[in-house]
Amino acid sequence: MEPLAFAQLLAQYPGNIGFSAIPKIPWGLLDDRQYQTLEQKIPQAHRQRALDYRAQGWDPTVFTAEDRALFYPNIVDVMGQNYARNDPEYYFKYFLTEALASANWTAIAAVFNLLFDKLPAGARIQLKPALRYAKAVTGRSSTYTFTGGGAAAQTWQDALINLMVLGFHAQPVGGSGPLHSSLASAMLEGRFVEAIAVDVQKSYLGNPNLRVFWRCDSRDKANFLDTHTTEAAVDLDDRAAELNLSQPWNPFSAQKVKNALWLRKASKDNDYYTIVSVGMDFRTCTSFPTLDEQKNPDYQFPMQGEDVKPLREWTQGELLAHRKNLARVSVIEGGRAVEKIRICTKTHAYMAVVNSGFVINTQSYGGGAFPERAVRGLPVDSVVGYLPFLRVHHGGKRANGFTCFIAGTDPPVLLISEREMRNRFGVLAADIIQRTYFEARTAILGHLKSAWAANGSADPDVMLNVQRVIERPLQAAVQPSDPRLT
């Protein structure tokens, strides 16, 4: 180190050098005399650490495991990065959140060295200039022009893939066979993978090994099933473009990543882009989407903490904005029918039958009791039943529950004939499919009352004797003082 620079460094430590300052000293740049001078200022208990740093040729501009205090998802916000949803920084936060649980600080430091410059003072960290970009948005797609060109996009992708390997598990789409060698350490344990294999010839009259799954969505058949939205986002060109999944800097544009189902390690849950969650029974499915699902554009209800605010506390503007999800209903109170206004959402249950392939047991993977599985997607031809229905919500909390009703002129329907069922799945399978469908349809007609629960479903903790839906959506404006809101 130059004498003037060393003198400035020495001036920072007029007394003993504390433990926290040791990683900041450029030990690898000191000559023997300078090292001995600083060594005298280090308490005996800390000298071995300083000696180790010097032996390693420690460079203050390189991230190491000692910099773990900087390894947190919001570091890009602290740096003042200007970015939007689905930009590189957004995915960096998504992947880093899961990778941190690995506590592999050396591997995380390597990612930081790919993306950031480590500064000796001030902000201490900044995005490498070559990795900055200009973004142009056309319709639902974006174009990213990096200062460092294509090499910069590749650096972003490499860094994000390295975080994925630390924070995610993966299962090849085919259900068997190895992952790409660079992803091998992320391989999901086989005990979480359930194979579904049916010999149609043997099962035609025998006991079929088919699986029935359910998924509820606020989107109707025309906007969900008919547009193939039941498939994972990475497999849908329009959706992938909208989410920037097909960008060269995004891990999901790499075939080796796209060809796997990914699960988050820290969150013990599915990845958002390569997996579709399905329920094991109809009643569990009816709770979805939950009222507090803020990413659902059809909801966005006024919130009070984690729950929807009581209707009587909504402003007139809020009541007007959410009128399509409000209804006049008839409720029995004190032995007589009274009119109330309640949140009333429409959801659509999709009944899928699968007799080949595999599913991931996310119930076991997450260590919980919630009965769900993960699949790559639900092919359109696997969906055999479509059951739209209304839910009159008893309150704003998940546990408050709801009562189900047929959705007026949009009744439940089987999407394939009994003959086709028998040809595709066998005689007994067709009987099971029809019985399962009609049980769900009967539950709606019988005004099923249910609520979300950690183990799938439960009885509502707020009992409301709803007899019928009088009007939905509301035609007339409602004032916050309207007694029907109580």
Top keywords for this entry?
486 residues, 3 domains, alpha+beta, three-stranded antiparallel β-sheet
Summarize the structure.
By secondary structure, the protein is α+β, with helices and mostly antiparallel strands.
Could you please describe the fold and organization of this structure?
By secondary structure, the chain is an alpha+beta fold. It has 3 domains: 3-60; 79-187 and 239-274, no CATH class; 200-232 and 275-485, no CATH class. Helices cover 27% and strands 24% of the residues. It contains 15 helices and 22 strands. The protein has helices at residues 3-11, 32-39, 44-55, 75-78, 88-99, 105-115, 149-167, 200-203, 237-242, 255-258, 282-285, 316-321, 362-365, 418-425, 427-445; strands at residues 116-118, 125-127, 133-138, 141-146, 168-172, 193-197, 211-217, 260-264, 269-270, 276-279, 303-304, 307-308, 326-333, 336-354, 356-360, 372-375, 383-393, 402-406, 413-414, 449-453, 456-458, 466-471. Strands 7, 13, 14, 17, 18, 19, 20, 21 and 22 form a 9-stranded antiparallel sheet that branches. A 3-stranded antiparallel sheet has the order 5-8-9. A two-stranded antiparallel sheet has the order 1-2. A hairpin with a 2-residue loop joins β13 and β14 (336-354). α6 runs antiparallel to α7. The longest helix has 19 residues, at 149-167. The protein is elongated, with a radius of gyration of 29 Å.
